[in-house]
Amino acid sequence: MSKSWALESGSKSAAGEVMRAEKLAKTYAEGKMRTPVFDGLDLSVQAGETVAIVGASGAGKSTLLHLLGGLDTPTAGEVYVAGQKMSALSNAARGQLRNGALGFVYQFHHLLPEFTALENVMMPVMLGGADASAAAQRARELLQQVGLGHRVEHKPGELSGGERQRAAVARALVNQPACVLGDEPTGNLDEKTAATVFELMLELNRAQKTSLVLVTHDRRLARKLDRVLELHEGRLRELPASDV
């Protein structure tokens, strides 16, 4: 049912690398005003690796995540996902790659309110071309794993905040992507629920051997990942454990 998102043969990516940014730049323009976010930024994410990106508000963390996920276009530089150069793909091919090779979890769940938890989680599988029965089976499995097996027929408005976010985690992982991108996925939850959802994300990512790139302001959570990178003045630097 799911496509293998191994690296394309002959790609420039190093063995085991699922995502890479090369000399990435982003500048916003409004009239004559130019606002550079970063210029010449490099990043490599290995298969199964978990990476936290921290930094001050306004440093460009979410912008970077949107560029890595193909949701925005860089001013310069390249992003490779599963060995494929994003800028070389058509809009349709980029969307297909994004749906299959990447999962997204945001601060707000972005579940569609008119659909049940099951239907929301099924959607990425259906978009990938699977039939409804296969999509429903995979979605039920993931919802069971996140502790929502008894809530599959409930709509988002009938779920708690933590339950909605767990459904969003299931949706992000349902296509067994190469990498999950998380933008403050626990930022809208209380401390106890945030810790529970975070541990669940780590557990499922490791079980599926999926990479995780997570933007977070919570350094206690960031310390649990393999690497912590700080985005400061347009540059990424790896933080030693003592500085996290």
Structure description:
The structure is a single chain. This protein is of the alpha/beta class. It has one domain (17-243): 3-Layer(aba) Sandwich (Rossmann fold). Helix content is 32%, strand content 27%. It contains 7 helices and 10 strands. The protein has helices spanning 61-68, 91-101, 117-127, 132-145, 161-173, 191-208, 219-222, and strands at 17-30, 33-46, 50-54, 76-81, 84-85, 102-106, 179-183, 211-215, 227-232, 235-238. The strands form 2 sheets. The chain has a 6-stranded mixed β-sheet with strand order 6-7-8-3-9-10, with helices on both faces. The longest helix has 18 residues, at 191-208.
Question: Can you lay out the helices and strands and say which pair or pack?
Answer:
Elements: E1 17-30, E2 33-46, E3 50-54, H1 61-68, E4 76-81, E5 84-85, H2 91-101, E6 102-106, H3 117-127, H4 132-145, H5 161-173, E7 179-183, H6 191-208, E8 211-215, H7 219-222, E9 227-232, E10 235-238
Helix pairs in contact: 3-4, 3-5, 4-5, 5-6
